[in-house]
Design a protein that fits this description.
Elements lengths: L1 E2 L2 E2 L1 E2 L5 E2 L1 H37 L4 H26 L2
């Protein structure tokens, strides 16, 4: 919508934003969400590694499954890190 000579946007709640502030707020929200996802992945990786270490001798097949999950999560974490860098 246009108010005077300025272009403004309204969110679903009704807040009014100039384009620059809208984009800055959206970037902050996306960055926060990505960092939260990355921290959660890091915690899951650490947990899986601990579990894998504990069962390594007694349950080698399960250990391999956990180690595979760790590898997949590390790949996902790298993708999230790249997304954060590109914001």
């Amino acid at each position: 919508m246009k108010e005077g000579k300025y272009l403004r946007f309204r969110c679903h709640i009704g807040h009014s934003y100039l384009p620059e502030s809208l984009l800055a707020d959206q970037t902050r929200a996306v960055t926060t969400a990505l960092y939260s996802a990355m921290r959660t992945l890091e915690e899951k990786i650490a947990s899986l590694r601990r579990i894998a270490q504990e069962i390594k001798e007694k349950l080698p097949k399960e250990n391999q499954r956990y180690e595979q999950q760790v590898s997949e999560l590390i790949e996902q974490k790298i993708i999230i890190q790249q997304l954060i860098r590109n914001l």
